[in-house]
Amino acid sequence: MNNDARLPANLRIGxxxxxxxxxxxxxxxxxxxxxxxxxxxxxxxxxxxxADSVLQGSLKDAEAIRKLAEDCDVxxxxxxxxxxxxxxxxxxxxKTVIPAARALKTxxxxxxxxxxxxxxxxxxxxxxxCDNPSDxxxxxxxxxxxxxxxxxxxxxxxxxGVDIVAKSAIESGSYxxxxxxxxxxxxxxxxxxxxxxxxxxxxxxxxxxxxxxYFNPQSNLVExxxxxxxxxxxxxxxxxxxxxxxxxxxQSPGLFAVELFVTQNAEVLVNEIAPRPHNSGHHTIEGSxxxxxEQLNRILLGxxxxxxxxxxxxxxxxxxxxxxxxxxxxxxxxxxxLSEPGVYIHLYNKAEIRPHRKMGxxxxxxxxxxxxxxxxxxxxxxAVFE
Length: 386
Hints:
By secondary structure, this protein is of the alpha+beta class. The protein is 28% helix and 26% strand. The termini are far apart.
């Protein structure tokens, strides 16, 4: 594609995966009349409400991915657990895939991802790759402290596949190895941040303001975040610089979420990279001049990167199923939420609720961070289903 950016007529984008990220990506494209086809097992997936067409099939089926590619000008994906080898073949045949399949393959395996950080001198927590379950106790013993973090190399998603484990539980055998995994040093009292990084096809890279995240201790899901983060300008600059460096090392266009730890000693460590729009960037839909979803549309279409500045300080509250909730559902405090200025509801078009399942999110906006946190505290009490 040349650098003469125009909105092309009848261009079609194929998305592997039809969840809420695909839905919001398509919604952001609507002013530009872009056509979208999604590949998904379920013909009634969340994105089906807005997609121009749904191709029903497995995300790991090479033939289904090739069929999607036949009718689409550009391919992208909204989930990592797909057939990256099929994407590599399509790239070699000349199909445009964003992010690049080689970047996806690096990120799909947490062991390869951690080795990538080491190879490129990107700061990350101390780790050891443990592929033999019988070695887990001795590997864990090599770390200081009473706990370690254990991450499955493949297949983890939405907080699943990551365990914080007492070393004594491993030694006693009460904790069983999940199989091939990465064992990491456990840092106490960290603060968790995210930086959304956008890289276009022409080598330009921009970052969004730093996002401060808080996780549910049971599900490991983000339950609340806000931006700009409450930190120093120097620390924010360090986080954005390290996140940009990590993405540039991947040498791929795309939208990436770089999850970071900041230790008690103000050391910035890269935790993981998601090669797609991310839960930590949902507040940008209302809170930024260019949302993460519009930004990815710009990248897919070869258009200039958009302004990443914030319109107002913004927070995001995840709407998830509570323990014991299954089946049909409705948002309990809709009237209260929609009566509050600067509050926006997003529901994901999922047929059934389940415990810890992401069903939607709420964006909260205010003129100052202090006002934002006060308002978000009230709104969180209304963020429940019945």
